[in-house]
């Protein structure tokens, strides 16, 4: 709906286009999403809906050649799908005009309003060229749009007397079947992962099921992918440090089924829709309940799906109550150790920990003071990482060996006092 001269009228882009009333000077509908993958997905869906209608669709995000991006927008952008960083750059440079916006849509609104760059979103809301809030419609979408901070922010930029909220009675999708496995150490996850992959592959008639595996640090995507690949479960990776063409190549390979496993940071946690996604694995648990719901929600979208998580008590205790509540609200029974403490008997998947702390198959010492695998405060993909030169060299050797069908995963990494280097956010699309 749009408001003109105080009267609400239907805003029908196709009819306006046929009557030559549709502006060509800027977007009528502006859709903002947090990641390039999500923007691209929305863009392709918009192209389908507007096929042969004369309505133009464009996109804007980081690593898209600036000159080509400008050229595409100038060809027509009745609907513009964008990441906030590139969008604000184009607005400030005068390449995108906001005067004619009738619809402003924020997908995964809670992440964008609460994330480190919500200042860019607020800058968009406060743009002098954006019509008054009485003259356009704002729509916020998210599966986890409940935080009071988000609602307080929106009250300032939305029409409080004209708000409609559509909420679900249960936060979690009822089609998602939750599984939680306690692990004795962070490195033990590698062994447990291989065992679980063998189990679900056997249950799937010997064919590796399409599986999305989440980690919290970009540096660990290759480690997990190598472990999967060398054990017969070919995997590719996606994270913020990969070039856009490599990210698209990995996602397309996964979507097509050519590659059956995708190891990803939270760049794939929200909104990404992949058919026949039967299994999601939280190799690392996220640090908040919304992340857990969003990741798990990549499966079970059209039929029953499984969301399995490894629970390492030293790192994940703060999440135990929330996870137990989510599982219980979904009508399922949560493991008893989430309400108390993990006992040795709870390590019922894979082998129980050995007191002598043997070297695991991935080359890491099986103990709780693990320096090779990120733990504690370093769980988030936004955190800084401390990989040594030796560990980076070993990863390269593992990649080369996996290309020749061999594995060096049993070689333990050497420690080094290499300086701390930043491990940037999984989502570089803000830039």
From TrEMBL:
EC numbers, comma separated: 3.6.4.13
Composition bias type Polar residues, residue spans: 403-418
Positions of the Helicase ATP-binding domain: 1-163
GO molecular function: ATP binding; hydrolase activity; nucleic acid binding; RNA helicase activity
A cellular component annotation (GO) from this entry: P granule
Keywords: ATP-binding, Helicase, Hydrolase, Nucleotide-binding
Gene3D superfamilies attached to this UniProt entry: P-loop containing nucleotide triphosphate hydrolases
Residues in Helicase C-terminal domain copies: 192-342
Family annotation (SMART domains): DEXDc (SM00487), HELICc (SM00490)
Domain of life: Eukaryota
InterPro entries cross-referenced by the UniProt entry: DEAD/DEAH_box_helicase_dom, Helicase_ATP-bd, Helicase_C-like, P-loop_NTPase, RNA-helicase_DEAD-box_CS
Location of the region described as Disordered in the Swiss-Prot/TrEMBL record: 348-431
Keyword Plastid on entry: no
One Pfam assignment: DEAD
Keyword ATP-binding: yes
Coiled coil: none
Composition skew (Low complexity), residue ranges: 362-372, 388-400
PANTHER family per the UniProt record, alphabetical: ATP-DEPENDENT RNA HELICASE DBP3
UniProt similarity note: Belongs to the DEAD box helicase family.
Protein name listed in UniProt: RNA helicase
């Amino acid at each position: 709906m749009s408001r003109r001269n105080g009267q609400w009228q239907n805003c029908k882009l196709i009819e306006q286009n046929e009557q030559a009333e549709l502006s060509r000077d800027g977007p009528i509908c502006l859709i903002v999403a947090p990641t390039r993958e999500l923007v691209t997905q929305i863009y392709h869906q918009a192209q389908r809906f507007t096929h042969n209608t004369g309505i133009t669709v464009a996109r804007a995000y980081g690593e898209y050649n600036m000159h080509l991006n400008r050229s595409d927008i100038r060809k027509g952008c009745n609907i513009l799908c964008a990441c906030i960083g590139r969008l604000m750059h184009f607005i400030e440079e005068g390449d995108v005009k906001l005067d004619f916006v009738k619809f402003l849509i924020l997908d995964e609104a809670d992440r964008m309003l609460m994330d480190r760059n919500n200042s860019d979103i607020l800058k968009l809301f406060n743009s002098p060229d954006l019509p008054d809030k009485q003259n356009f419609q704002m729509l916020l979408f998210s599966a986890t749009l409940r935080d009071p901070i988000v609602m307080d922010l929106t009250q300032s930029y939305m029409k409080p007397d004209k708000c409609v909220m559509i909420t679900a009675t249960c936060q979690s999708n009822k089609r998602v079947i939750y599984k939680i496995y306690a692990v004795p150490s962070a490195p033990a996850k590698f062994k447990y992962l291989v065992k679980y992959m063998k189990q679900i592959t056997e249950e799937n008639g010997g064919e590796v099921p399409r599986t999305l595996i989440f980690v919290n640090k970009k540096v660990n995507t290759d480690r997990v992918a190598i472990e999967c690949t060398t054990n017969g479960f070919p995997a590719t990776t996606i994270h913020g440090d990969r070039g856009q063409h490599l990210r698209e190549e990995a996602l397309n390979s996964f979507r097509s089924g050519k590659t059956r496993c995708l190891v990803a940071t939270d760049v794939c946690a929200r909104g990404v829709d992949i058919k026949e996604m039967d299994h999601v694995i939280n190799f690392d648990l996220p640090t908040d309940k919304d992340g857990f719901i969003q990741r798990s929600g990549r499966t079970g979208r059209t039929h029953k799906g499984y969301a399995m998580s490894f629970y390492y008590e030293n790192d994940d205790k703060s999440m135990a109550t929330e996870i137990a509540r989510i599982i219980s609200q979904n009508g399922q029974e949560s493991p008893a150790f989430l309400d108390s403490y993990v006992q040795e008997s709870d390590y019922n998947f894979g082998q129980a920990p050995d007191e002598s702390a043997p070297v695991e198959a991935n080359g890491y010492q099986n103990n709780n003071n693990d320096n090779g695998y990120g733990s504690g405060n370093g769980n988030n993909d936004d955190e800084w990482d401390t990989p040594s030169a030796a560990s980076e060299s070993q990863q390269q050797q593992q990649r080369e060996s996996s290309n020749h069908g061999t594995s060096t995963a049993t070689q333990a990494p050497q420690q080094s006092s290499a300086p701390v280097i930043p491990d940037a956010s999984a989502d570089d699309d803000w830039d």
